[in-house]
Design goal:
The chain is an alpha+beta fold. It folds into 2 domains: 117 residues, D-amino Acid Aminotransferase, Chain A, domain 1 (2-Layer Sandwich), CATH 3.30.470.10; 161 residues, D-amino Acid Aminotransferase, subunit A, domain 2 (D-amino Acid Aminotransferase, Chain A, domain 2), CATH 3.20.10.10. Helix content is 28%, strand content 27%. It contains 8 helices and 17 strands. Strands 8, 9, 10, 11, 12, 13, 14, 15 and 16 form a 9-stranded mixed β-sheet that branches. α5 links the parallel β8 and β9. It binds ligand PPE. The site of ligand PPE has 16 residues, from α6 and β14.
């Protein structure tokens, strides 16, 4: 159960327990909302920082633009709201969840109700477990396909689209796996239920291109930048399910999942069945970057003081 002191709702900080909506809230019925997941980390200098705050808030507005819902605040206000929520809850690290959704009023799919906005934050440890981050997880290709590009809006992080991810993760966990990997409707690998995916073979990294049915992950973008700087060759191209089985290494990236190695897919061991050298290097630089230990990635961090 998530618990906090306050959260941001429709323009101001409100007590956590008073942040309520009506049961006839339009978004609750039709999934009309856009959201983000952002992480804040403790940094090496004893302070704290939000990772790639501007890019996440920009993606929230891009998602809203695609869905044609207008967020009644400028982006700078929501960037500030993220920091306010962290400070007011005295969170030196945590997960931040901005959400904009169609509020109560009329019902009917096309009803035009006021847009409500919240930003909440809470502590959230490793998404796919600490052990998963260290040793790698076991994944299963889902029987559900990633929504076709003409069904979903892949550039947008729309709440309703997560029914697809929900079905896939439930199926995978009931079958005893840690996470689901979804293929697109042509049968090519697209992404995890809440993560982008990378394979490594012969020292070359591959990830599906942004022209396919994948979210333009901000962690994906960070990993590509880190790979370029490390001199790890990579290509953005489609690949098939069996390419995963034959990979030397496989890993998932996401704000919640960070950089999580995958040690097994569909009961086939990946490489040596443990995180490989490329994955470990990228994971290491990524965690150094979020903690402010890599000067060249400082621009990704927005510093704040947790205790005010
Ligand atoms: N694909 C999907 C489908 C996805 O949901 C995420 C994030 C990503 C890729 C990676 O994107 P990025 O966070 O920008 O690197 N998933 C979010 C929600 C997880 C949840 O269970 O809630 C997240 O990681 O915050």
């Amino acid at each position: 159960m998530i618990k906090a002191n306050t959260l941001f709702m429709d323009g101001k900080l409100v007590p956590f327990d008073l942040a309520e909506v009506h049961v006839l809230t339009h978004a609750l019925h039709y999934g009309i909302g856009v959201f983000e997941g952002i992480r804040a980390y403790k940094t090496a200098d004893g302070r704290s920082a939000v990772f790639r705050l501007r890019e996440h808030i920009q993606r929230l507005y891009d998602s809203a633009h695609i869905l044609m819902i207008e967020i009644p605040f400028p982006p700078e206000r929501l960037e500030e709201a993220c920091l306010e929520v962290l400070r007011s809850n005295r969170l030196p690290a945590g997960y931040i969840r901005p959400l904009a959704f169609t509020g109560a009023g009329a019902l009917g799919v096309g009803a035009q109700n006021p847009i409500q906005v919240i930003v909440a934050a809470w502590p959230w440890g490793a998404y796919l477990s600490e052990d998963g981050l260290r040793r790698g997880i076991r994944a299963k290709v889902s029987s559900f396909s990633r929504l076709h590009v003409n069904v979903s809006m892949v550039r947008a992080k729309i709440t309703g689209q997560y029914v697809n991810s929900f079905l896939a993760t439930r199926e995978a966990s009931l079958a005893g796996y840690d996470e689901a990997i979804l293929l697109d409707t042509d049968g090519y690998v697209s992404e995890g239920a809440g993560e982008n995916i990378f394979v490594v073979k012969g020292g070359v990294m591959r990830t599906p291109p942004l022209s396919s049915a994948v979210l333009a992950g901000i962690t994906r973008d960070s990993v590509l930048r880190i790979s370029r700087d490390l001199g790890v060759p990579f290509v953005e191209e489609k690949f098939t399910r069996d390419t995963m089985y034959l990979a030397d290494e496989l890993f998932l990236t996401g704000t919640a999942a960070e950089v999580t190695p995958v040690r097994e897919v569909d009961n086939r061991r990946i490489g040596k069945g443990e995180p490989g050298p490329v994955t470990k290097r990228i994971q290491d630089v990524f965690f150094r970057a979020v903690r402010g230990e890599e000067p060249k990635y400082r621009e990704w961090l927005t510093a704040y003081e947790a205790a005010s």
